[in-house]
Inverse folding.
């Protein structure tokens, strides 16, 4: 037995002698002291607009990484000089780095993040003086058009919670989409990280791949995203909305594609990239005008008169009145001691078209009364539930399902809600009369309002609104599109014609005739959302052309007064720009007036609020 | 009794010193392999070295208890230990927990135990007791199959539980049987069975059968007059062919990770993971050079290139950080311990103690052989620990138990025990 033991031990020692002493293949490692595992970051996908214009691309920056165990005899004086930091700052950065999650002196850690190419190339020359340090290429996003910040979104460092739930994929310091398209399409845009094992020499220079790259994995570049935005129209919309709070949402009715979505005040998306992101983000967060707030999908307003076409459609569908129904407008409508006034003097309406054109309040109070007091139903609560059902089918009071990180569902009040306030069967039409004219508990987002008009333009259906048309693999060129859901309302197609005609009359001879555009038949509706905190909000929703609609739009200018004052001009300018690409000379003065209109004093702001934001030097 | 008073004088302190040396080295290497560059203390129980320290204290306590108990106690209760430990191993089927896909752990509060480690101790006691019996002659079939059964029973149970590595260790007992007179043709048959099995996995099975047929036909051609030899040859041929086909079939029934490990060793590349483990271990050891990179300076093991670097692949940490000289030292200490145990075994007056000593030496040797063999790339990746050095409470306790019972027996080496 001793012989067996000795002979095996002999074999082991010979093998060890061969491995450790004779074979120098492994010796390379021993002397140079490291295989380094490099992360290969994939290029993040690009974003194009609907016309193929590049709207988001990448620019290289560098993270200065350090493997502390290898960082010996580093010329710190020179390093500080090149980075233009003081010794104290240097020491503070080292201390901060050690506090980072996942810190290990054997692994690469980010020492300074996001050096520009200029700064890094200055450093690179002297890299041999700093063993243990190396540059890791990363990329930052650039937005050449400087618009659509809240829709495109931004990228930032991955949160701890995301790291924990990623099953080891994300590492501290990785970048992921934080808002907008960047967030929703993170999986597609982000690509897949690769890994490379390399030998490095004593000067920390890569001297070759480990094991011929056998264990390397390639990075898979992110997919490109084709957005539905028309970036030129988006830009125009942001110009029209400057110095005003509010939203513009434009949808292509036949597809549900968002052509433009303005959230005002906006900001230059380039502010939230690179090393200045943190500082600028805090400044934007503190801004009292809430530029980070995505108004088109999150802000809710009473739709006001823009709600009336829906009331008309429901009345026609339920058969409670005909198109030629007459309501006497004596300047007001009184029921149960409540009087709803009409906004202006006009002859009484003998049909729905004229009532819409004049936005007659008494007419729609009576119409809504007819809906709620419909004899088909035994109780108000039943007819009310039916009405709510109709509203929901138009995407009101429910989420539209848009591909944005968050969305408000607005509000269409329920039977339960009124039962709770007044008690069961103890409320009736007179109690909820304000709903007739889109006031009271009804709340819609600008997106829902635009979608309502897209649905009217489609005569009864709407497609889930979306901001991304398709995803393209940059290598194979293959496209991925997924169909968006078609939502059908309960309104028969024949009832749309009189309502659409009425909406057309709004611009031809009604409340928005000042915004009529020669050569384009626009159908729209003004609205004035009551605002208890100040001037009313100016609203306008429309679609055009009347035959074969190409665009549906909703505009809300907070504290802008009557719908015809700001919202209708801005909406029709957007429509004209989109359909004709130019603004006719007779309307240039209006265009200038809208661009120059400044409502900031209404919000109590007079300073140039953007002064505190810093751009990276270029 | 007067003898009891001077027990410290009878203890073989050399064995105890070698044991302590290995455990201490193991502890230091575990610290190096598990600290990962965080400035944690070796006693920090959030890392392996801290936990190992707790097990070391427990082992020392158990060693002390073993030494103060009368040696006859172990001899008399051999079978009781054996049966109890078998039941313990069986219990994992009911109350066991799965760790790394193998249901062979039992949890007591925050501690986990692997009963299969302790089963070796029980088998060693039982086989020693059985073979030490009066008139027991291993050459007789009547005794032979009982001896095989004592070893085979725990082996089968453990194998069924999915821990093939721990089951294979029981093959070490065959060395004990040879020392006690098992005929050498078992060794020949066993060795040729292993060779044939390996060949049938490397070469296409029908080529082997054709090759065997050619050899047999040649034998028959040259000695056709010798009827007995011809018949024997044909019989061997049929058995060998069936065996080759059987191995091939059995191999296809193994679990994928076990197939991979064998295939990697045989040079048939299959699993990247199995290959990676061994390759990384070899690189780590190879990069150690003559003197090694120095304690706590191993990059391969630190960067977690070597998996299981504080348990099954702990030798790669030693090879990397202490180089050839360090590896030589560890192997020498192991050899010294094995030779010392064998020397002690031979000086026992009691047959029981001698056989038990051989069991201890065989088990330690088998672990040493397979563990270091796989770390340096000459044995398949079988997950068994390096005795006294690898991280793991169950194995440290089990080996301590195994060794110190023998040390205790040795203190009463002039007595006859059975």
């Amino acid at each position: 037995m001793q012989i067996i033991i000795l002979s095996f031990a002999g074999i082991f020692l010979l093998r060890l002698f061969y491995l450790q002493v004779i074979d120098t293949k492994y010796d390379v490692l021993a002397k140079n002291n490291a295989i380094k595992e490099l992360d290969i970051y994939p290029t993040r996908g690009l974003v194009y607009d609907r016309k193929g214009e590049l709207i988001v691309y990448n620019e290289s920056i560098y993270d200065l990484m350090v493997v502390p165990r290898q960082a010996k005899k580093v010329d710190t004086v020179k390093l500080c000089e090149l980075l233009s930091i003081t010794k104290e700052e240097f020491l503070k950065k080292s201390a901060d780095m050690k506090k980072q999650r996942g810190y290990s002196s054997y692994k690469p850690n980010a020492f300074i993040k996001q050096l520009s190419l200029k700064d890094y190339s200055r450093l690179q020359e002297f890299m041999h003086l700093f063993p243990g340090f190396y540059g890791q290429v990363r990329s930052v996003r650039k937005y050449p058009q400087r618009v659509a910040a809240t829709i495109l979104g931004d990228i930032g460092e991955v949160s701890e919670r995301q790291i924990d739930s990623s099953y080891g994929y994300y590492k501290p310091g990785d970048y992921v989409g934080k808002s907008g398209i960047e967030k929703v399409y993170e999986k597609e845009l982000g690509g897949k990280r690769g890994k490379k094992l390399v030998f490095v020499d004593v000067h920390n220079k890569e001297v070759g791949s480990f094991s011929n790259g056998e264990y390397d994995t390639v990075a898979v570049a992110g997919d490109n995203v084709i957005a539905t935005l028309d970036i030129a129209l988006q830009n125009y919309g942001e110009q029209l909305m400057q110095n005003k709070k509010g939203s513009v949402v434009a949808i292509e009715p036949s597809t549900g594609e968002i052509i433009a979505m303005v959230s005002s005040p906006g900001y230059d998306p380039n502010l939230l990239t690179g090393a200045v992101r943190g500082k600028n983000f805090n400044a934007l967060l503190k801004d009292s005008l809430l530029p980070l707030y995505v108004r088109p999908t999150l802000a809710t307003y009473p739709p006001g008169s823009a709600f009336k076409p829906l009331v008309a459609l429901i009345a026609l569908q339920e058969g409670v009145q005909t198109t030629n129904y007459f309501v006497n407008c004596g300047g007001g409508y009184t029921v149960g001691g409540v009087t709803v006034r009409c906004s202006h003097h006009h002859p009484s309406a003998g049909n729905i078209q004229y009532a819409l054109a004049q936005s007659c309040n008494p007419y729609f109070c009576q119409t809504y009364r007819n809906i709620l007091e419909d004899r088909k139903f035994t109780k108000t609560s039943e007819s009310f539930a039916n009405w709510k059902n109709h509203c929901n089918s138009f995407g009101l009071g429910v989420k539209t399902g848009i591909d944005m990180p968050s969305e408000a569902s607005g509000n269409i009040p329920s039977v339960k809600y009124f039962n709770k306030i007044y008690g069961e069967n103890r409320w009736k039409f007179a109690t909820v009369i304000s709903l007739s004219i889109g006031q009271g508990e009804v709340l819609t987002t600008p997106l829902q309002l635009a979608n309502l008009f897209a649905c009217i333009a489609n005569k009864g259906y709407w497609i889930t609104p979306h901001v991304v048309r398709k995803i393209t693999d940059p290598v194979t060129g293959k496209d991925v599109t997924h169909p968006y859901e078609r939502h059908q309302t309960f309104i028969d197609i024949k009832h749309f014609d009189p309502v659409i005609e009425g909406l057309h009359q709004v611009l031809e001879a009604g409340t928005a005739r000042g915004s009529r555009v020669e050569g384009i038949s626009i159908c729209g509706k003004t609205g004035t959302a009551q605002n208890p905190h100040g001037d009313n909000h100016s609203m306008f929703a429309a679609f055009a052309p009347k035959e074969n609609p190409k665009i549906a739009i909703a505009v809300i200018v907070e504290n802008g007064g009557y719908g015809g004052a700001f919202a209708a001009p801005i909406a029709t300018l957007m429509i004209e720009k989109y359909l004709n690409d130019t603004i006719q000379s007779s309307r240039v003065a209006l265009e200038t007036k809208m661009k120059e209109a400044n409502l900031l004093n209404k919000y109590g702001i007079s300073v140039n609020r953007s002064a505190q934001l810093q751009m990276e030097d270029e | 009794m007067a003898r009891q008073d001077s027990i410290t004088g009878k203890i073989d302190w050399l064995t105890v010193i070698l044991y302590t040396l290995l455990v201490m080295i193991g502890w230091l290497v575990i610290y190096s392999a598990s600290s990962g560059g965080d400035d944690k203390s070796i006693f920090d129980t959030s890392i392996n070295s801290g936990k190992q320290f707790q097990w070391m204290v427990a082992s020392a306590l158990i060693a002390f208890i073993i030494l103060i108990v009368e040696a006859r106690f172990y001899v008399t209760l051999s079978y009781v230990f054996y049966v109890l430990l078998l039941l313990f191993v069986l219990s994992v089927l009911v109350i066991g927990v799965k760790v790394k896909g193998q249901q062979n752990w039992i949890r007591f509060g925050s501690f986990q135990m692997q009963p299969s480690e302790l089963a070796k101790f029980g088998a060693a006691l039982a086989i020693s007791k059985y073979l030490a019996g009066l008139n027991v002659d291993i050459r007789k079939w009547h005794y032979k199959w009982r001896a095989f059964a004592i070893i085979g029973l725990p082996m089968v149970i453990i194998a069924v539980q999915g821990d093939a590595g721990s089951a294979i260790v029981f093959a070490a007992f065959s060395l004990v049987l040879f020392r006690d007179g098992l005929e050498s043709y078992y060794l020949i048959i066993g060795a040729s069975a292993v060779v044939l099995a390996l060949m049938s996995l490397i070469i296409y099975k029908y080529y082997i059968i054709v090759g065997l047929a050619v050899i047999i036909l040649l034998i028959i051609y040259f000695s056709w007059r010798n009827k007995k030899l011809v018949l024997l040859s044909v019989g061997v041929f049929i058995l060998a062919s069936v065996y080759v086909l059987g191995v091939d079939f059995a191999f296809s029934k193994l679990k994928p990770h076990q197939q991979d490990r064998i295939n990697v060793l045989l040079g048939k590349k299959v699993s990247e993971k199995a290959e990676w483990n061994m390759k990384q271990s070899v690189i780590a050891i190879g990069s150690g050079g003559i003197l090694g990179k120095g304690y706590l300076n191993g990059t391969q093991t630190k960067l977690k290139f070597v998996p299981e670097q504080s348990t099954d692949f702990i030798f790669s940490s030693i090879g990397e950080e202490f180089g050839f000289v360090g590896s030589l030292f560890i192997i020498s200490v192991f050899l010294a311990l094995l030779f010392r145990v064998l020397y002690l075994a031979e000086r026992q007056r009691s047959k029981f103690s001698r056989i038990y000593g051989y069991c201890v030496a065989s088990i330690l040797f088998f672990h040493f052989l397979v563990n270091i063999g796989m770390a340096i790339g000459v044995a398949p990746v079988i997950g068994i620990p390096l005795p006294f050095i690898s991280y793991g409470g169950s194995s440290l306790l089990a080996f301590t138990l195994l060794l110190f019972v023998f040390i205790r027996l040795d203190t009463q080496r002039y007595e006859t025990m059975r």
Summary: Residues 35-71+94-101+108-227 of chain A form a domain with the Penicillin-binding protein 2a (Domain 2) fold (CATH 3.90.1310.10). The first helix of chain A runs from residue 2 to 22.
